[in-house]
Amino acid sequence: MCGIAVHFNSLGRATPLDLGLIVHRGPDSSGEWLSADGHCWLGNTRLAIVDLSPTGAQPMTDPATGNVIVTNGEIYNHRAVREKLGGNFDWRGTSDTETLLVGYARWGHAVVEHLKGMFAFAIYDAARGELFLARDRLGIKPLYYAVDANGLRAASEVRVLAPAFAEIKPEAVSAYLQWGACPEGELIYREIQALPAGHAMTVGPDGEIKTWRYWPSRKTFALFPDNVIGRVRGLIDNAVEEHLLSDVPVASFLSGGIDSSVVTALAAQKLANKLQTYSVGFDLAEFDESAIAQEIAQRYGTDHHQIRLSENDVIESVTEAVDKLDLPSVDAINTYIVARAVAAHGVKVALSGLGGDELFGGYPSFRDVPRLQLLSALPPFLRWIVALPTGLGNRLADLPRSGNPGELAQWRRRFFTDASLRHAGLPVTHEPVDQSVALPDDFAQISWAELTGYMRRMLLRDADQMSMAVSLEMRVPFLDHQLVEYVLGLPAAVKKRYRGVKGLLVEACRDLLPTSVYDRPKAGFVLPMKQWMRGPLASFVDEGLRETTERGLLPEVFVNELRANFKGERLHWTRLWALVVLGQYAKRRQLVRTPDENSPIHPHS
Question: How far apart are the C-alpha atoms of 533 and 527, rounded to whole Å?
């Protein structure tokens, strides 16, 4: 795992970017390289995990071709890739970076089709004078870029590319408030874009940019309906084993839930050394699942660390997390608290159960979307009458009429309605649902919407920015692309054949789990944020809200209404917290809103 930075300038000399801004991503070493003609600069900060010797250092040059690479992430099948390449190479070391570089020399742009892992990389092709960039299929690792008269700059984090002072488009404020995070198509900074997941890009010697999608590579995911339980278990087994590739100890986050318990159980069975497991407990018992985690740890004989956090510890972590955000998010706090606590024990690599809910139906969206489809078919006035007893009448005004399950699943994730956004003087933007692959039924479409929407813009970004803030690599075996493709290709009837939430996953791994893990309501690590925002975090909340108005991001009347509704128990804390995070982020990054006809105040007044 590393941080990378790139500048390619076809018309002039490339300028080094500030690697100090991403030293937290790679505190072990750093390096930079400039092409002989001065047009390409590559930089890297390294968190050494595979091949700890200097032969794994970056930027790395291929002596046979002169090509140079910087990469972030892990190629879990890199040993198999080396076997595929044959034995005619004089390998200098054992790093997956070298494997990727040699693989590019053999397969060119098609190298991505041979990789399994999480990655974002840039390769300078010396013969072509071309820059090649690519990002992994599910978007586990980020890659941002900006294009201007001085060429293309790219980096693992937005902060490397962002100007010292910037104006935010109202569309970006609107998109952030809708989703509680910035969708990749509408980042906070107008000049910065994300290379989409499953995409690759080239910048030619003349500066011409070409971007294409390499995954999904087929119009449908193949269906193999025989021996489903055995196939699912085999794919999960293989994914966990591949995710153990490391020259440093690998730990596991163990929350006590189904997903982290499955990952922990399999990893503990496969590791030669005792697996380190970590659960984070909180002083207030109702917010604590560590007892169930302890049961799993004892069953598999792990070296278990039950970290107890005081209220003061957690409150300190909350403000610290907001301060370390590369992009604003309403939901990054839990990830940072756990990552920070685990990294403090000297851990560099940790396994996570992220992805299990999206694949196997663990979210309420799998239950709710069929009901929403019925509501969406009603005329608006009937929809409002039906929803009146639930208090959702106003929110349902924005319910998509199409009945498309992916659109409805995405709609469930909205934080603010169209009417609220207009009241804030913001334009209403719409995030398109990814429809790049044909899926067998509504269940699969909901999975795909969660994987490519909520998970990508929030969960994966938060996992990356919050774990790397403390120099910790977080790995997600459930997002092995072969496992994802297989489960998405299965008909819903197969997934619903087994009783309970995530029944297919539980059935495939039943031998690994005590009944206490899966025979109970889904829970999680819950913080009493509502109480804290009214108590020890009150001044932090007030400051964040004040910044949103003083910087012209939102009208004061809108902010005050939300504050009053929160105090009156009429607004969920996450809605107000979204504003707090935006204000604190804007203060730290010196952001103001671009003037337009709906601006609440002139941003520089």
Answer: 11
